[in-house]
Design a protein that fits this description.
The chain has 2 domains: about 140 residues, Aspartate Aminotransferase, domain 1, CATH 3.90.1150.10; about 230 residues, Aspartate Aminotransferase, domain 2, CATH 3.40.640. It is built from 13 helices and 14 strands. α10 packs parallel to α12. The radius of gyration is 21 Å and the shape is globular. The termini are far apart. The relative contact order is 0.16. Bound molecules: pyridoxal-5'-phosphate (PLP).
């Protein structure tokens, strides 16, 4: 398989295909290696590892004053979103859910399941919710106590304007919760610059760990006030935190190997230069990959302004010789696993740019796409007119 090493990173996955997906993603070899040991969950060594993870994550969020705490939660990202919503929204609260894709809609679905009041702004597949419309919705409904925003809506790859949304929320005395699953660690969510009560992310996104747990970073006073809110025993962030403060332990079996891998991932994150450097590498990955794909005739769903440095949606080419499943298999045979699209109106696919990869790999992704098109007999990757008409609806 054509996965030779590059100058920046030695081959992180021993010839296995690169995952161009937004988590699980391609992790460094040393991250995988960190899992080759067993840990006792009650042991002091493991308790110290958990504490180190939490301390480092609070620092990544920019808090140096002890005003915020980090609580790790077992499970995939969705478990942690559910735990954040269930813990921070009181039983008589009401949430304004801002949706522009699958993850926003999942947050709304979660509210329905846990039986809390909510209202929804649904912007469709990829229009960003803007500060002024959030403000208008809050003015119109004084019973709304919280707003949940998706930082990077991973289904389209749009980077939503959370700073603007936060201002609209706090100008009206409401509270913001953020799903920063696919952005935290690479995109700024510094508590000194963007106000929020709690955010959630997971081990297997921009910190480049493996899947198995997520974490909530929350204003301490808000977490203290959240005691007794949660509908669920295992998802109660307050109870998990209280237990950690008391004993340094997770309440129930922690994913020990995943935590060990995550510590190594955090070490690499710091070594690279933290959030700005991680974000810069991903942005460079995106720029190189998008420029190359556009040269082949591919077009992005989003205008440059909204393109996240996380994942990019492309329209499928109009050429009838283009068949996505064939393209997927050809790309995989060349060492790259891409991601199907999630749009409702036009055919699309996605390419993630996060994980242990740099621009050298991105150039090889473009070369692989070019070869794959040739093998399929597609001369030009230009999208159908309908796709461009759809895109023209993007106002801003
Ligand atoms: C990955 C992700 C989640 C969580 O998804 P899981 O499959 O449960 O890990 C939630 N929100 C966003 C924006 C995501 O990118």
């Amino acid at each position: 398989m054509p996965t030779t090493s590059t100058a920046a990173f030695p081959d992180p996955n021993l010839g296995e295909p690169f995952l161009l997906t937004p988590g699980p993603l391609t992790t460094a070899f040393s991250v995988k290696e960190a899992m080759l040991r067993d840990w006792g969950s009650w042991d002091a060594d493991f308790r110290a590892m958990t504490k180190s993870v939490c301390d480092q994550l609070v620092a990544l969020a920019g808090d140096a004053k002890g005003g915020f705490v980090c609580v790790p939660m077992q499970g995939s990202g969705s478990y942690c979103v559910e735990s954040m919503l269930g813990t921070f929204v009181p039983k008589d609260g009401k949430v304004l859910v801002l949706a522009n894709g699958a993850y926003g809609l999942r947050a709304a679905e979660t509210m329905r399941y846990i039986g809390r009041a909510y209202t929804l702004i649904d912007k469709g597949d990829y229009m960003p919710p803007r500060g002024d419309e959030v403000g208008a919705a809050l003015d119109a409904d004084p019973s709304i106590t919280h707003v949940i925003a998706i930082h990077c809506e991973t289904s389209s790859g749009i980077l939503n304007p959370v700073a603007e949304i936060s201002e609209a929320v706090y100008a009206r005395g409401r509270k913001l919760l953020v799903d920063s699953m696919s952005a935290f660690g690479a995109v700024d969510l510094d508590v000194n610059r963007i106000r929020y009560e709690a955010m959630v992310s997971s081990a297997n996104k921009c910190i480049e760990g493996v899947p198995g747990f997520g974490f909530v970073i929350a204003r301490k006073t808000e977490l203290e006030a959240a005691k007794g809110n949660c509908h669920s025993l295992s998802l109660d962030v307050h109870a998990q935190w209280a237990n950690m403060v008391k004993s340094g332990q997770w309440r129930y079996t922690p994913p020990t190997h995943v935590v060990a891998a995550f510590l190594e991932a955090l070490r690499l994150h710091a070594e690279e230069g933290g959030v700005p450097a991680r974000g810069a590498r991903y942005a460079r990955n995106r720029d190189v990959m998008v420029a190359g794909m556009r040269e082949l005739g591919f077009e992005t769903l989003l205008k440059d302004r909204w393109l996240s440095p996380i994942i990019v949606t492309f329209f499928c080419p109009a050429d009838p010789n283009f068949v996505f499943t064939r393209f997927y298999d050809l790309m995989k045979s060349k060492g790259f696993i891409i991601y199907p699209g999630k749009l409702t109106v036009v055919d699309s696919f996605r390419i993630g740019v996060i994980g242990r990869m740099d621009e050298h790999i991105m150039r090889r992704v473009v070369a692989a796409a070019k070869e794959s098109l040739t093998e399929m007999g597609v001369a030009n990757a230009a999208p159908p007119a309908a796709a461009l008409a759809e895109r023209a609806k993007l106002a801003a």
